[in-house]
Amino acid sequence: RRMFPTFQVKIFGMDPMADYMLLMDFVPVDDKRYRQVTLYAFHSSSWLVAGKADPATPGRVHYHPDSPAKGAQWMKQIVSFDKLKLTNNLLDDNGHIILNSMHRYQPRFHVVYVDPRKDSEKYAEENFKTFVFEETRFTAVTAYQNHRITQLKIASNPFAKGFRDCDPEDW
Amino acid sequence: RRMFPTFQVKIFGMDPMADYMLLMDFVPVDDKRYRQVTLYAFHSSSWLVAGKADPATPGRVHYHPDSPAKGAQWMKQIVSFDKLKLTNNLLDDNGHIILNSMHRYQPRFHVVYVDPRKDSEKYAEENFKTFVFEETRFTAVTAYQNHRITQLKIASNPFAKGFRDCDPEDW
DNA sequence: CCCTTTTCACCTAGGTGGTAAGAT
DNA sequence: ATCTTACCACCTAGGTGAAAAGGG
């Protein structure tokens, strides 16, 4: 399924005439597996370390579908990764990002400069830059473990409008 | 509205590693305006020349949204111009192709080689090729003038399924 | 009479959490 | 008890011709 909320960035400082690829990947925050503990009721549950992380295949990468594009194009509006999809299916062949459920992840954003020089491989190291926003960390789940997260998503995701019982503005 | 049926081409002979732009435009078949004459009933009407063509603004061009892309990419499957939209609104600001209703048009398909040389403008003449398929000529209308065309579109366009009264396979 | 515009019900295509059944 | 899967009603978003109203 789509990652929601969508990762979005506003970009400055590119060479307007040069080509860039924009991509994202996800790295584990720790090597732990989490589990849920219900204290009094479903709405007041919390996370507990449940042991060592499950083995993970090498992480996939999601290229922004507009890649490659000129710096001018990327900078002129907010770049939105709304086509990025997550799955827990290790055999997925739709190119979605594979994550282990009940594990914590850190999304990463990478900018790759498309070097027009013939021997561009030599400069690979200096031709990309990675950006990490720690506030975008999350726990992957197959079902929400917290009613307040569910309500927040129902209130903010337009595709969940069918589950709203009041105006999201009043929320 | 979308042009339907969609213009589709299968491409051979490109340089797999080179970049190409694919685009379409529409040229008048003649300088005539047509009108409808109903003989016995709506289902048996035919076209009549109604005078000289209306003045036309310079024709717009529709770039295939995947442009630019490598030859290998274009050749590996049928290229479909299903995002191309037609309008009769001279003030259109959605980038749609503007046509005069009741006029005849010839769709054209252009392939532009993206020349990596610095002085590529010099070679513009030899870097593109135009293909015309006369069987794709049509008369632009705001409403269908022939019941059999209407029925053909209802039978073949998936978005018109609501108007079908029998299985299109039996048609 | 011929043509154009606007609105509409009815589709395609696909993104939501709910729910019940199943797995561990 | 906790987590996963499959299916569903209900949305968003947008492409159809029908029909009615309007223009010349």
Structure description:
The structure is a homodimer of 171-residue chains. Chain A is mainly beta and 171 residues long. The first copy, chain A, folds into two domains: 8-140, Immunoglobulin-like (Sandwich), CATH 2.60.40; 146-170, no CATH class. Helices cover 9% and strands 32% of the residues of chain A. Chain A contains two helices and twelve strands; from the N terminus they run E-E-E-E-E-E-H-E-E-E-E-E-E-H. The longest helix of chain A has 10 residues, at 147-156. The chains hardly touch. Chain A binds a DNA duplex (24 and 24 nucleotides) through residues 1-2, 4, 35-38, 88, 101-102, 141-145, 150, 153-154, 157-163.
Give the secondary structure arrangement, pairings included:
The structure is a homodimer of 171-residue chains.
Chain A: E1 8-9, E2 19-28, E3 32-38, E4 45-52, E5 62-63, E6 69-70, H1 71-75, E7 79-80, E8 86-87, E9 97-98, E10 104-113, E11 128-132, E12 138-139, H2 147-156
Parallel strand pairs in A: 8-9
Antiparallel strand pairs in A: 1-7, 2-5, 2-6, 2-10, 3-4, 10-11, 10-12
The structure holds a DNA duplex (24 and 24 nucleotides).
